[in-house]
Amino acid sequence: MIMSAKSYLHLKDSIVILLVISSIYVNMTSKKAGSFVMTENYYKPEMLADTDWLLENLDKPNIRIVDCDPPDSFFRAHIPNSVNVGSNTFVKSASSSLHVMDANEIEEFMSNLGIDSDTTVICYDGRNSLTATRFWWVLNYYGHTNSKVLNGGWVKWISENKPVSISPNKVDKTKFVAKKDDSLIADHNRVLAAINSDTDVIWDARTIEEYNGQNSRGNKNTGHVPSCVYTEWLDLIDSSNMSCFKSPSELDKIFESIGVTREKQVFTY
User: Fold this and answer.
1) How many CA atoms lie within 13 A of 81 on its CB side?
2) What fold is seen in the domain 2-174?
3) 122: which strand partners?
4) Is 139 helix (H, G, I), strand (E, B) or coil?
5) Does the fold of domain 185-268 match that of domain 2-174?
């Protein structure tokens, strides 16, 4: 069942949006990347999809829209034709809550979502892209680079009164082939080597309480990695603009202020 966002808001007067995000490094360049027309001149616009473009392409068979929110949010309402990741929103391995699924797990997981090598994946959530960018990273880590994060996500979609659905979307199982890209992850030895390096920068993007050791989040050790720079991921989101990423000029200022530059290898945590 598809309804307008206005009708959904009338039915659900209290929708709680958690303000969270994972970063995408951006700057100014062309306004277009293929057919994905962006509203900002980002450095890598191909990493993002626009809500107006998605509305025009909702029914394209080679596009898989993935709702990265928990199931209870998905079943209240979602973008039409989207599938839900389920309760494992961070795509963690069944054998370790610290790590992403292994190749065998990810192949089964993505295949059940109807994703194969020819699929363009659009990831979104209602939490300032925290889980959407995580899902995007997992896809890229396992070799599926044809994926985008919906800029503004569910917040922007519903704010623009675009259509929503309350019906689940059944998709056929496909064959996802995992091709792991180890360049997208760093082990502790590599991060240790980056401490006080002139060519590397370590970026702590957690809350200030975690950074200064006041909140352990259940971890044995507190504080931060020596020599790291700090700004919270929420600083990259424009809460006054439907949870979109901040403009390229604003992001440039943030990155410049903490020493994150394209000349350096950046490690985030």
Assistant:
1) 15
2) Oxidized Rhodanese; domain 1 (3.40.250)
3) 65, 148
4) helix
5) yes
Q: With helix as H, strand as E and coil as C, how does 163-228 read?
A: CEECCCCCCCCCCCCCCCCHHHCCCHHHHHHHCCCCCEEEEECCCHHHHCCCCCCCCCCCCCCCCC
Residue 97 confidence (pLDDT): 84
| Measured distance CA(63)–CA(66) in Å, rounded | 10
* Nearest Cα to Cα of residue 154 among 61, 16, 38: 16
Q: Among 167, 168, 157, which residue's Cα sits nearest to residue 9? A: 157
Residue with tokens 């993505």: 110
Q: Which whole-number Å values give the CA distances from 114 to 65, 135, 142, 185, in the listed order?
A: 10, 15, 16, 26
Residue 248 near residue 256, CB atoms below 8 Å: no
Residue 51 CB coordination number (10 Å)? 23
Within 10 A of 104 (CB to CB), how many other CB atoms are there?
9
Q: Residue 11 above 70 pLDDT?
A: no
The model's pTM: 0.84
Single-letter amino acid code for the residue at 4: S
Residue 21 in this model has a pLDDT that exceeds 50 = no
Which CATH entry fits the domain spanning 185-268: 3.40.250.10, 1.10.760.10, 3.80.10.10, 3.90.45.10? 3.40.250.10
Give me the residue spans of the domains in the chain. Answer: 2-174, 185-268
For residues 140-164, give the mean pLDDT.
Answer: 97
- Amino acid at residue number 179: K
